Amino acid sequence: MRYKKILITIFLICLIFAPMEQSLAGNTVKALEASEYVYIVPVRGVIDNGLATFIIRGIREAEEMQAKALIFEIDTPGGEVGSAIKISNAILKTSIPTVSFINNEATSAGVIIAISSETIMAVPGATIGAAETRPNEEKYISYWSSALRSVAEKTGRDPQLVAAMADADVVIEGVKEKGKILSLTTGEAIKLGLVDEQADSLDQVIQRITTDDIKNVEVVKADMNLSERIAHMVSNPYVAPVLLTMGIVGIITEILTPGFGIPGVIGLIAFGLFFGGSFMAGAAQSWVLGLFIIGLLLLVIEMFVPGFGVFGVTGILSIIGSVIMAFPSLEQALISILFAMVASGIIIYFLMKRITVNPIFSRIILGTKQDKSEGYIAVNKDMSELLGARGKTVTPLRPAGMAIIDERKVDVLAEGEFIPSDSDIVVIRVEGSKIIVKSIERENV
Q: To which CATH superfamily is domain 25-224 assigned?
């Protein structure tokens, strides 16, 4: 019991204090003493809330040090539209001259980030475009293409050209026909005026934007701190369902297992990473984290209360609600939860089959051997003669288990309650081969 309390306490402390690391990180750049700064923010990998948090922090630091230029080094296949728009808005609001350097690709949601800067440069053979929404429905396409048009107008680019990257119905004579999504190479984008110029490397970009007015230049490159790395990992739409699956499998296995062991630790760590990362990424508010903790505590209480009642149901509903609220969108939440439920169900099924033959897990199997020589009689016929008979439980009834009735060992089923072993019981109903019992103590209450 003491071991369990220590682990739960550590888990809760990690959830509460992990966000503090985010606020303490990223201040070292202020100690630089160069007279002029060029600040570089990498935009790599899948776009999600974690990446958005990092980029917005980078823009804020560049403003605090009064950088002369802000370069976004982009290499992304896209990602979440909401996070991409959040990044775009932050770029548009800054007063620092901005440059988007496409160092490989800026596709899908990455398009709106690239066109948010005042200047766009790209390496030879880079790709920009292919910004079709998922799901590919009219309301999503309309919203997304409108967002692209709006940003293009603000930065002086052709709104129709960027809209054609998201809407297959847009037709541009000699450039794009109906039914296809526009995607451009560096050379094509330069000819159409979307990309301003070609640059072979990041150093070349820095050289070109550095003028005689900017001297004693210090190049500062933003780097993710620990909390942002966790948030970026957890916000990834492919990682979040895996963490949920690990959490569900770990907790359910722990509930089926007396004591507190490795499955419970793994489950708590998985849920801790999921909620902690979502909180640090800004996808989950503090009350969502609190809702999950309350649900977890209610399940812990349920473990020590006979039967399964209000604590268990409320705890499960609280956890499900907090999981849904931790995602940036309901659609992503439902997809991730569905995947987690199916995957965890399959894993638990095969795990239970493995448990039945693996002595390591023998503690969660009924240990009493049902030997005929020991008086056990299989219940495969009508047992109505036992109605009203009294006996004593051999194993805990959760609700099924074993009892001795009329000097015979039989399988019994408790009626909606938990009955400990070595408890006095009475048979209240017999349904064919099913023997339903109730605690005598409860009957007398």
A: 2-enoyl-CoA Hydratase; Chain A, domain 1 (3.90.226.10)
